[in-house]
Amino acid sequence: MTTLAKHSRSVSPAADKPQRNGGLRQLGDLKIALLFIAPAMIGFIVFYVVPTIRGVYLSFTEYNILGDPEWIGVENYAAIAKDPLFWNSLAVTGQYVFLNIVLQTALALGLALLMHNVAKSTIIRGTLLLPYLMSNVIAALLWFWMLDYQIGVVNQFIEWAGLPRVAFFGSEAWAIPTQALINTWRHMGYTALLIFAGLQAIPGHVYEVAKLDGASAFQTFRKITIPLLRPVLVLVLVVTVIGSFQVFDTVAVTSGGGPVNATRVIQYYIYQRAFTESDFGYGSAIAVILFLILALVAFIQMKFLKGNESDLD
Amino acid sequence: MTTTASRAPLTKPASRRRPFNPRRAGAWALLVLAIAVSVLPFLWVLRTALSTNNALATNATSLLPAEFSFGAFKRVFGLQSAAEAVAEGGSGAQIDFWLYLRNSLIFSSVTTAGAVFFSAMAAYAFARLRWKGRNAVFSLFLGTMLVPPIFTALPNFLLIKNLDLLNTMLGMVLPYLFMTPFAIFFLRQFFLNMSREVEEAAMLDGAKHLRIFFQIILPNAAAPIATLALLTFIGQWNEYFWPLLVGSQDDVRVLQVGLGVFKSQSPQGAPDWSGLMAATLISALPVLILFAAFGKKIVNSIGFSGIK
């Protein structure tokens, strides 16, 4: 955003001339501007604004699609507060988000450092990005096969190593870590590229000074790289958290919420309530809660980023 | 490798030590491991897709296909009789990935074309025109990036249902057709950075905004528009949740949804792994082709989208 502001400032002197011939042009611009944003505006209002309002409204109703929505106040929310399946879905999703933060950020940071220090070639970066370009469904099915209990190749390796086979999708203990691993596999290269871009932005002379001062590699990493990288790391964290809170595809395609309730994540629970059980009011209320959680995450991010910017300058 | 080679002659004293540096070797080993983890699964998918399903159980680790056959691909494209399919370990259920491939192509191309074009128009208004409330409206548009898709998906589903457009291609593409906040943001950024000189000269000649947009802005922004179209197309190709809600019937079903259906049709005991992997590969292929052709463009765009 800062570059943006800077740029429009540098442009305006050049643009002064045509502006001088009057307020007339400004009115003309408004008319033509309306024409240019009209299609996007229709999409914005019909498919973003109205549904957002309608979604909040539905969360206060009882609605099974067939009749009309019936206003019931906060009853849905009261029921959710006492719904063990909701709390379970929150806990399960939280576990998933946590694993993704730890695995993805750590691996991606390591990979980004490797890209930065050893291999800057675009081909290598591209290769590492490949899983990210695949759909969640493809990533899920690919690992569903490779991690199969009976004849999956990973379990063959595990057996060769003299360890007992793992029921990656079938055991309650492994179900969520497995989903998190699939997601980490898909996002690792992408996250690494984001961090890599941040590393590239750190001016080289900072490192040279550190070297002259006799700083060790580890000291440089801890005292220079990490602090200067903090805004990017915060961004990566937020992208990861917001993305993983909305996990659905991989669960829907592989474990379908099971075994028992082990992978019934929030979005899957919303889907089940709204579409399997035709309880749109209840589903919408959980969606509102998810929305609030994500808004909170975004808010915390903005606070963090602001604190950091002053830190950096 | 190129970096080691190009750097070595520059720093003479270190040049001899560099190749034997154990830390560097270790770093390369880790990098190779990461590449292997990223790429090898795809080779395993290919190997499985070219196997006969019934032979997989006894050859679970052979690097080459177990009893090489194109049967899985035939099965997925509905070219195999039910009896043949069952004999090779398929479920025998009729499945036609040609249809899903066609649906996916229509869905992704139409939404990409619409979203990119209309977003470009809006981005032009946000970047190059002066009007009251411009920045406020732009912030509102950007704000929609914060709304989780599931939240609007429920009401949008009801809207499409009320319009009687469930299980139609129109109902599937409508929510994506007019804009995406990211596309507007992305293009606005480029339009802001374009030189105004040509535009102003044209304006003095009496050219109208529509002509400027089509004859000056669009051609000059061809590269970022192509990148955006590429990213949008891949994203739409991979879309699962919305097509699952709105396009559950066979004639509008897209590949991603078809894959899920195909997987759930497999008998629990002995799934049709080679058929499933053949289908997975077919679903991945268009993106793999785009990646092979435009990989560099995609990689270079990541830094941009990341540092918003």
Summarize the structure.
The complex is a heterodimer of chains A (313) and B (308). By secondary structure, chain A is mainly α. Chain A is built from 13 helices and 2 strands, in the order ααββααααααααααα.
Structure description:
The complex is a heterodimer of chains A (313) and B (308). Chain A has 313 residues and is mainly alpha-helical. Chain A has 13 helices and two strands. Chain A has a two-stranded antiparallel ribbon with strand order 1-2. Chain A is globular. Chain B has 17 helices and no strands. Chain B starts with a helix and ends with a helix. At the A-B interface, helix 1, helix 2, helix 4, helix 5 and helix 6 of A face helix 3, helix 7, helix 8, helix 9 and helix 10 of B.
| Helix content range of chain A | over 70%
**Major sheet attributes of chain A:** 2 strands, antiparallel
Compute the average pLDDT of chain B: 84
Reported for the largest beta sheet of chain B, the result is: none
Q: Which chains share the greatest interface?
A: A-B, 106 and 96 residues
Q: Rounded to an integer, what's the Rg of chain B over CA atoms?
A: 25 Å
Number of helices of chain B: 17
Tell me the overall shape of chain A. Answer: globular
Keywords:
heterodimer, A: 313 residues, mainly alpha, disordered N terminus, B: 308 residues
Summarize the topology:
The complex is a heterodimer of chains A (313) and B (308).
Chain A: H1 2-20, H2 23-58, E1 61-62, E2 70-71, H3 75-81, H4 84-117, H5 122-133, H6 136-146, H7 153-160, H8 172-201, H9 204-212, H10 217-245, H11 249-253, H12 266-276, H13 280-312
Antiparallel strand pairs in A: 1-2
Helix pairs in contact in A: 4-8, 4-10, 5-8, 6-8, 8-10, 10-13, 12-13
Chain B: H1 2-7, H2 12-15, H3 22-49, H4 53-56, H5 71-76, H6 82-87, H7 97-128, H8 134-143, H9 149-162, H10 169-177, H11 181-193, H12 197-204, H13 209-220, H14 222-237, H15 241-246, H16 255-265, H17 273-306
Helix pairs in contact in B: 3-17, 7-10, 7-11, 7-14, 11-14, 12-13, 14-17, 16-17
